[in-house]
Amino acid sequence: MSLHLTDVTLTYPDGGARLTALDDVDLDVPAGTITALVGPSGSGKSSLLAVAATLISPDTGHVVIAGTDTTGLSRSRLTELRRTRIGMVFQQPNLLPSLTAAEQLQVMAHLDGRAPRAARGHAMELLEAVGLTGQADRRPHQLSGGQRQRINIARSLMNEPAVLLVDEPTSALDQERGAAILDLITTLTHRQGTATVLVTHDRTHLTAVDQIVEIHDGHLRSPVTAGHR
Predict the structure, then answer these.
(1) Which residues does the UniProt record annotate as the domain ABC transporter (predicted)?
(2) Which end of the chain has less Cβ packing within 10 Å, N or C?
(3) What is the C-alpha separation between 182 and 206, in angstroms, rounded?
């Protein structure tokens, strides 16, 4: 239930040349741990997340998710892998305005072919885990920004992923609500046993993660344990 990137290089066309976004990257994220990915804008954080999510195939190297090497997998197999083994939390929740909080989660199970009754039960369990049982029948416009982000996190865990990729989850929240969201991600990572990668610019909460990796111009610096920087 871990995430491994080995010798990953990713380039993009840049006029008549190619721009290197990731340069020979190695990253190991064990199950039940959080790796914080930090670095300036344009350093390669988004590219690394996209590769880890199998949304982009690297030029070279391997991405292994819960023991499955994604190299050479067909498009349909990668889609299935993302649906069943990868959870993604974006900066903006992007909830469907017509659906209730519980339905936001249930639709993920529907895509995976699960029975409606079982999906409802699992959705309610996750809403309880994020402290929103009482908001299950409310729609996004009836919820605060912090509550919508909590639903976003719960939705990402609906299909019990092995890997959780989190992109700046507190960027639209104040300090207090942001801290609560990071505490929630930490708790759920340990409880669900996910291999979590957290991209953040907010260094004030990095003591809650297991390791910190800095990226600059596509190069990863050696991971350091939180609290030992």
Answers:
(1) 3-229
(2) C
(3) 9
CA 181 distance to own-chain centroid: 13
Among 1-10, 111-120, 138-147, 149-158, the range scoring the smallest mean pLDDT is 111-120
* The pairing of beta strand 163-167 with beta strand 86-89: parallel
Evaluate whether 165 touches 89 at the Cβ level (below 8 Å).
yes
Segment 53-73 shows an average pLDDT of 95
Residue 37 sits at φ, ψ, to 5 deg, of -110, 115
Domains of the chain: residue spans and CATH: 3-92+161-225 (3.40.50.300)
Phi and psi at residue 155, in whole multiples of 5°? -60, -40
More confident residue, 36 or 92: 36
Mean pLDDT of 155-183: 87
- Give the C-alpha separation, 95 to 208, whole Å: 27
The C-alpha angle with vertex 102 and arms to 99 and 106, in degrees rounded to 5, equals 85
